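Morning, I've got a small favour to ask if you have a moment. I've been staring at a protein lately and its backbone has me curious. You're getting the sequence in one-letter code plus the fold written as tokens. I've dropped the whole record in just underneath, so have a look:
=====
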Amino acid sequence: MLNEMWWVLMLVLNFVAILFAYRVWGKLGLFIWIPISVIVANIQVTKNVNLFGLEATLGNIVYSTSFLATDILSEMYGPKDSKKAVTIGFFSVIVMTIMMQLAIQFNPAPSDFVQESMETIFGFMPRIAFGSIIAYVISNFHDIWAFELWKKLKPGKKTLWMRNCFSTMVSQLLDSLIFTFIAFFGVYEMSVWWQIVLTTYLLKFIVAVCDTPFMYIARKWFDNNKICEG
């Protein structure tokens, strides 16, 4: 159960980090979190672990928290700012991928000891980044659209959980299917690939449910003018 303990700890730390960034820097803090989440997720996803008896990739938690950030932006500031956050994440993944591809082209010095590890992680990055970019853009824009739809159908603070969960859960399903197909189909045996598909969505589903209380905290801070907007 050690992996599961670390997973829960990582989950809590991610949510706390988002709320801290939002409380201290307001909307800017959420814009800052987006590139952090997508870059860290694209690195962590190269590592496979066993969670709850199934094989899974890391990166699911931190990536899923980007949906909480865009939902907070949609709820408090509107879809325009959410879409801006998505484009920032899109830009950050592209730049990171290009920069690291250039970095591994340099001939290492005799004293270097990280080249092989960098090639292992970032040599596979273009395929991961491509899958991540396609899945990220489609799923996040769907999330923004769905959030606004539920906001119109079920307005008010009491139904905040509904638009937060329902929009994210469907968007996470789209993201999981698109990303795992592009990034990992043919890389692993089919039995492992299906486990990754299942666990990727299952873990993201759990994150979507768990982030609801933090959404309400953000809403309460905003209503009580406790957010520093730079």
